[in-house]
Amino acid sequence: MVINFAAGPAKLPEEVLKEVQANLLNCNGSGISVMEMSHRSSNYGKIQEAAIADLRELLNVPQNYKILLMQGGGTGQFAASALNLIGSTGTADYVITGSWSAKAAKEAAQYGKVNAVLPKLESYTTVPRQSTWKLDPNASYVYYCDNETVEGVEFDFVPEVKVPLVCDMSSNFLSRPIDVSKFGMIYAGAQKNIGPAGVTVIIVREDLIGKHLKVTPSILNFELMDKNSSLLNTPPTFGIYVMGLVFKWIKANGGIAGMSERAKAKSQLIYNIIDKSNGFYYCPVQTQVRSRMNVPFRIGSSAGNEQLEKEFLAKAEAEGMIQLKGHRSVGGIRASLYNAITLDETQKLAKLMLAFYENNK
Ligand code: PMP
Fold it and tell me: Where is each Aminotransferase class V domain found (predicted)?
């Protein structure tokens, strides 16, 4: 048996994959696969509408927020968020706490003035408290990334700001309760917690729609997407179908509260081993903002002993635990514990870590 600890594309719930398999040749009694259905057919329409309705229910999305399904992934939204929202004042605040928010800020700078609210951090291992931020009162929005997937840094608070809050939740979406009304826009690429790559969820407050820059490509234009019920062009129908099944799976497994409890239990298990290893395992992230989704660590020392790390990865693979290698920009190990990873699977990783510690300390 293989346990997939990938950072994304990542593990999907086995129950969902089995349902996809069972329905593959004959989707909902249509006699054809969902991949072969017209996106304008009523059969497909029901699938997309149900996915959006289930998401609205799961997150308690207020009626004055639109849910859009788009393509282009998180990177598409680095551009789309700026193209659609920066126009009101021409400037926006970016809270750069890791690789992904840095990339988003760089992209946005093509379309307006970007103000970095923090001095450049020496390392992405912390979230400076909001009292230290230098916010621009003229900003159209404040942007941040709730969970930095590469560095394993997750916000432990929702910023309180006077302008719309824009948040990249790609790697912790639907893993803890959120109050949507605190945000102007939330987006998430599907391929970590909610489905296959190819579909991106956008939740945006109605009054922010329609302020896009003139150069905004139609495919990234919130107003056009909204007017066309996310069917401006052919959507990633298969991805939306699978994502809809994941939403049903979350509903059947305790909802967001259930996902949140699991996430806490799983990540605590691994962080406890790291913290009790006398420095053999080392996680550079400040305790308060350690990610429940992506647990990065080094082995042997804070800089990492590459030989030991290689051995650990080989041992893990031999036991069926795969895709544990850290992001190429930071090295080391990264265990991603998204919603679909079970406590039982996490315990197998914990067991390996304890045994490896005993043999190599
Ligand atoms: N934001 C975050 C937090 C991510 O983890 C990623 C991808 N790993 C992205 C954005 C970029 O997403 P994509 O590859 O879908 O463009």
Answer: 3-349
For the chain, domain boundaries: 15-253, 255-359
Q: From atom 2 of ligand 1, which residue's Cα is the shortest distance away?
A: 170
Is-catalytic flag, 54?
no
Complex ipTM value: 0.99
Q: What share of the chain is helix, strand, coil (3-state, %, to 5)?
A: 40, 15, 45
Ligand 1 in reach of 168 Cβ (< 6 A): yes
Distance from the alpha carbon of residue 326 to the mean position of ligand 1, in angstroms: 15
- Number of alpha carbons in the 13 Å side-chain half-sphere of residue 125: 11
Per CATH, the number for 15-253 is: 3.40.640.10
The class (CATH top level) of 255-359 is alpha beta
Cβ(71) to ligand 1 under 6 A?
no
Strands 200-205 and 185-189, by their bridges, are: antiparallel
Q: Ligand 1 mean position to 102 CA, how many Å?
A: 12
